[in-house]
Amino acid sequence: MTDSNPCMCDTGFDAITDILLVDVSTATAYDYIAIGTGTSTPTRTDTTLETEDQRAASTGTQETTQSTNDTLQLVHTFSFGGAKTISEAGIINAAVGGALLSHATFTGISVTASDTLAVTYQILAQQGT
Question: Within its chain, how far is the Cα of 5 from the centroid?
Answer without folding.
Answer: 30
